[in-house]
Amino acid sequence: MADTTPKSFGGATGFASVNLAKGFVTIVLSTLALLLLCVVFAPSAVSAGSLMGSLPFAAVLAIVGLGQMLVVQQGGFDLSVPGSVSLAVVIATHIPNGNDAALFQAVLVAVGFALAAGVLNGLMVAYFRLNAIVATIGMNALLYSAVFAISGGVPRITTKLLAGIAGGQTFGIPHSVFFALGFLAIVSFVLKKTVAGRRFEAIGANPKAARAAGLGVKRYQAAAYVLAQLLYCTAGILIAGITREPTAFQGNSLLLPSVAVVVLAGTSLLGGRGFPISVVIAAFFLNQLSQFALSIGVPYSAQTIVQALALVFGIGVYSIDWTSRFKTPRQRSKEEENHETI
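Given the sequence above, the corresponding structure tokens read:
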């Protein structure tokens, strides 16, 4: 099938390519700088044991971040992350109740809930034009109602099968890392190499132009919420296997980081192209930043502040035109004259 994405999006695509390069370089350099700081000031944060213990959670955050990225690409925010992840955790532990034979059934139920939540979010935001923040907050409340109904707030021990799949290692690498890399490959391929993916990004960059070109704007916007919920569900199931006795509120700590990694990756909060590989690197960066903070004595209760500062850093880097800050008034005046001439 031919790609009928309007050519008028070419300028936006070129601008996004610049942002991609800037976002990728920025997050890579930031990660390398952080690792150097760890080596100098907190060697325990980069020890083999510390990395093997933290990588699974970085992988989980990467998967959640990819889901949030899809929604942000369409100009929205998904605040139902905590409820979605927590519900998947509860279903994956309470339905089997330690019985490996019931694990597959539990996964199907979790996926069913995720699909229902994604469809409802998509309908509310894309078709009924509800504000994304309001709609997903309401969905989060509904999902937590299901969490309490199933679990009663009481944790359960994970099954041995799920612990082996999600919490095991192959060649010394946690299985969750392979899951994160697998989803990274899938999301990157779909967004960058398929017609549907290019249309998805074009719609996020300019919905009005996409609608005028005859693209199914509402359908693609709704699909972002469905796909995001499936990724949150996967992350929750992985947490249920990584953690021996996960709580019913395991997703609470993932909302702010999911937004932070998307921002740190250089994704525009106004919609447009997404940068999956940068999101995954940003997830490792943010997770390692937390490990560094803990190693130098920052209390665990202050981790939210650390994540918020990382979010502010990302907004500052990508939202402010730093090059113009160092230009003389004469240079700025000349640029304005050239712009008016054009």
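The first helix runs from residue 10 to 41. Try to locate this feature in the token string yourself.
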